[in-house]
Write a structure and sequence with these properties.
Largest sheet: 11 strands, mixed
CATH topology of the largest domain: Rossmann fold
Shape: globular
Structural class: alpha/beta
Radius of gyration: 23 Å
Low-confidence stretches: none
Helix content: 25-40%
Strand content: 25-35%
CATH architecture of the largest domain: 3-Layer(aba) Sandwich
CATH class of the largest domain: Alpha Beta
Number of strands: 23
Length: 414
Amino acid sequence: MICLRSSDVVIQNQTLEIPQIKGFPYKEHLNKGNFIAVFDSASVTIYPIVEWIKPESSKEKYYYRTKISSSSRRKINPVIIKTMFGKNSFYLTTIDILEKWCIFSIAIESPPSLLNIKEKENSYLRLIYNNPSKEFFIESYIKWNEWLPISQELEHLKTEINLCIKNNQMQNINEKFDCIKNILNRILIQAEIPIPPLTKEISLSRINIIFSNRSVFFPIELIENLLVQYKIPVFREKHGEKKRVRKISFIYSEELLHSFDEVKKITTSFEKDIKIEIFQDKNYKDYKHNLRSSDIIHFTGHGKAENNYGTIIMDNESIDHLYHIQNPLLIFLNSCHSGLFTEGIVKNLINNNTCFVIASPYEIPDAYTEDYISDFYSLLNPDDIEITYHLNSFKNPLFKIFYRLYSGYNNKIS
């Protein structure tokens, strides 16, 4: 499917005309039976391609014309449209993904529900669920002797997943992720927590997750139709997001085979007026002050999680903070295990006024995630990192499995 802005097409007399657009991939995507999606400021109209009329000469004003017949029109959030196109004249996708965008547009109109997961010493696991749009609240308890074997099974599956990734046995991973998903579904059903609360109108549901006390391995993002964001309680008066990205800093480890290639691929996504800085992790002490003015920091290197605490490795040291940052919009930690626990570097970055942190709870399968990360930056909309994250997850479902989105949460949960 070809997505175009309404300002870039001409529709009249059952004919749709596409003008000359630089880089337009007409040969591959203008086949009969395909679709064209035309976006205005807050809606999309889908036209099936009936019959293309090729131009008689290269001097014609329009590249292609197609006859159009029936069409369907859907509302869609303007921020989604802005994120999808960026500064491009066209966008390529599938009709299935476009359908998810429209459903997502409905979902983001309502406030997200909240699930607080809290261990109470060795007595029980407490789950508190609140859906503000439906004024629904439930507090449920799972006895420790019931939770402990479940927790051990989840940890065992996580270990097996990491071994598969480390040994490049990706074909075995989906089955293990399905096992985790089924366990989590059973827990939520037992706790009588309605996740996701589906209706005929909405088949996607936003939810914020808060871990209190120790972090437990509860990867609820594996459940279908959930739009998950992990929230970290912080206590500050203001937490403003920057709307303009002027400087992006990349830090990479030479020990990772393709880390510099990843950085080079990502940097092609940005406009020339954005300042790009690239550093090696081993020289951190020499450039740490340069990070103060960075709006986005992307780290590709090693990470670890020990004793419920996450860190990254820089200059051969475990780092749980970037002390010299100053209110960055986003820090992307493309490192193994750094996002497994909220305690440690993720929490410290959020408490130091980082608006969003993206980090992984697993080993990183480099060969599978490089394109997903590049797609994320291609979609990057500084006005709404959450929408960017979810739109990229629709295109690349493994992205939301391997990378969690964290942000601050100003309300204290008892």
